Amino acid sequence: MQKQNAMSEQLLKRKAVSDSVIKKARPVLEMRNISKTFPGVKALTKVSLTVLPGEIHSIVGENGAGKSTLMKILAGVYSKDSGEIVLNGKTVTIDSPQTAIDLGIGTVYQNLDLIPSLSVAENIYMNQFPRKSLLIDRNILHKNAEEILKLLDCRISPAATVDSLSVADQQMVAIARVLSRNISILILDEPTSSLSPVETQKLFENVRRLRTLGVATLFISHHMDEIFDIAEHVTVLCDGKLVGDWPVSELNKNSLVKAMVGHEVREMFPKIESKIGGEVFRVEHISVGKYVHDISFNLRKGEIVGLGGLVGAGRSWLVKSLFGAVPGRSGDIFIEGKKVTISHPRNAKKLGIGFVPEDRHNEGLISGMSIEENIGMCNLKSIVSHGIIVSKRENELAEKVVNEMDVKASSAKQLVENLSGGNQQKIVLGKWFENHPRIMIFDEPTKGIDVGAKSEILRKIGNLAASGIGVLLISSELPELMGVSDRIIVISLGYKTGEFKRTDFDAAKIMLAATSKE
Amino acid sequence: MNNKFFNIGSKVKNLGALIVLFVMLMVLSIVSPVFLTVSNIRNVIVQVAVIAVIAEGTTFVCLTGGIDLSVGAVLGVAGVLAAGVMRNTGNTTLAVLTCLGVAVLFGICSGVLIAYGNVAPFVSTLGLMSIARGIAFIYTHGKPISNFPDSFRFMGAGDIGGVPVMIYIVIVSYAIMYIVQQKTPFGRITYAIGSNEEATRLTGIDTKKYKVIIYTVAGFLTGIASLMYVGRINSGHPNSGTGYELDAIAAVVIGGTSLSGGKGSVLGTIVGALIMGVIKNGLNLLNVDTYYQNVVIGTVIILAVLFDRNSKNTNK
């Protein structure tokens, strides 16, 4: 109990650090030549990062650039394969989240991981309750919590339960919890993704206040405006490699975006020529709750329209609502010029729409079932005769899909859960192709799939379009999206922020549209 | 030879229960000379018939990851209402339709509450159980309604060629439900809902509608069981069927159907029901106190699940 009081006081009594001190100071943190490989993917290659005490340091890069991996290594969630972490001049080993906290590195994750049913004070001092013999000393607990919250200029009651708070206040509680551990480095992982502009400003005030207390902040954000608003220094990653680091004063939006998208234009995803016909699908003024706002676009036969944007921009909500899988949509949908009603996936399927969802394991496939059962489930009409499933037809249909999609499986009776990611995805694609759709929607179809299978799946999608089907494709990988799309619509924070014809594709312009915050 | 029809699908892994049943049959036929006689075997089947028919519906419900606690009470209320109609009108057809109708109505209520009201299956069927039992007592003022004509008692007490009608019902209903489960879209969708409801929905299947149908089928089968029960004891008693929901769940679990859904089959369930019947019968023949029988059955339930769990782990 006394220990915690001391901690809070120590934090309060820290002297304000002036800019000149920061500039001359020895780095509080150096990550040197960090490498990390996941099965099949090289996530980080010799990435280095230097942070000065009290610095507000932004880490930027496209989706999958390695920002989160780097931060998770620092937070002790992942272990590095090679490289060195130096904290205050001493080499340290961070082998667990607990070690990271003990070393003064605190992380506030995007999903906050608070316990909703417990009080603010209980959440802040979880694992380190002040005690009076066996019981929790509620008075001290609330007094301590109040002090920490005061530090953040946050006027919420320590006794309130977390689930009664706004997301912004919950975030303050998460930050307060980290601060109660006397940290010197604070990692904020996309902290503004669910905040309003006013709440974002309040957060920034607090980050600046912590800076005067000597706490360095590592700030991950996709939004250009925020980076230029708050950060002093920027480290840019691309494809798991360090592009460079600069003081923010030496950059502007365009130069930063150019650094992010990298130089090489990869020709991994060749475009399959397709004859583009008349309009097959049109949506007007589609809104879905707080996720999608007034989006209109159309799609022609044989055309691939890419939906670009950052993870969490609302693209999945948009396509799921178009497929009838989530409620709360307003706006109109037209198929071949006729207005249609889609309130359940069943309607969408009847109208000739197929949907390959992002989450293969929980949404795309029924993992306890075999390949043929999964395919049959989506094509019951063609395998049923007089109300009975004809095993022979079901098996033939599955064999056909397995052959056409080049699925590597021992037989059509194999359970889908025993297939590799790429082969599972081919089953999801194949089961919908057999349904002869007019419109196919793909949500991140190559996510978590190795490079070889990736281009194979994109080629199949290209062939599908070439056969006259309209394709709507979400991908967060810009090179992939630019490679296969005929047109790209960019969505940021639920708004349509750009539309590009293939002849106008420009990675920097698309990235700028994707990161614009209205 | 083409044995496609009897080809046991990948989800029908009730071998463990079948082995247990065989071992029990062998041991009992050695220690008791009476056990393996036609009349005794017939006895066993007749004793488990009511639970076995209820448990078919329970199997479907459990395959979706749901549970139905109302079936015992529904058996009671459908039975007394039918008995009342029988007494007041003397019309067998009307009484039979009343029994089935009431049971189906309760099934629809469970299904709608669960699928469209998003009430947890445990809670909604617990509520309906209490309502059903309450209505049974209100209607009868707690007194049984007895003595029916043979036509009404046919399903419970009749026989064809010396074989009790109940045995025909068990065999025919299991054959039908097995085909429904393994060979029809309805059966396939039942498994799919239990394995992954969201993926099933995103395949364009109206999972809510199917859930209502599944609980309705469970209700219908309970109605059949109720006719068997009332016919057999020649009396509609408001208390009848008490605890049957748990016996049905026990049969399902012993038969290897997972309560979390997606795995199991009605074939396992009939084996499970027979195991429970054989245990009771065997212990009776060996003159073991009935109080001990409950302890044995409880142990078997736990062992069945333990065995199931651990054989699953070793497969991984």
Described by the principal axes of the CA atoms, the overall outline of chain A is: globular
Proportion of residues in β-strands of chain A: 25-35%
What CATH architecture of chain B do you see? Orthogonal Bundle
Task: Give the mean pLDDT of chain A.
Answer: 87
CATH topology value of chain B: ABC transporter involved in vitamin B12 uptake, BtuC
Q: Could you give the count of β-strands of chain A? A: 24
| Basic shape of chain B | globular
Low-confidence stretches of chain B: 1-12
Backbone CA Rg of chain B: 19 Å
Q: Strand order within the widest sheet of chain A?
A: 6-9-10-3-11-12
Low-confidence residue ranges of chain A? 1-7
Can you give a write-up of this model?
- The complex is a heterodimer of chains A (518) and B (316).
- With 518 residues, chain A is of the alpha/beta class.
- Chain A has 20 helices and 24 strands.
- In chain A, the strands form six sheets. Chain A has a six-stranded mixed beta sheet with strand order 6-9-10-3-11-12, sandwiched between helices.
- In chain A, 48% of the residues are buried.
- Chain B has one domain: ABC transporter involved in vitamin B12 uptake, BtuC (Orthogonal Bundle).
- The two termini of chain B are 33 Å apart.
- The A-B interface holds A 323, 325, 344-346, 348-350, 355, 357, 362-370, 373, 376-378, 380, 384, 387-389, 391, 413, 415, 431 and B 4, 7, 10-11, 179, 183-185, 188-189, 191-192, 195-196, 198-206, 262-263.
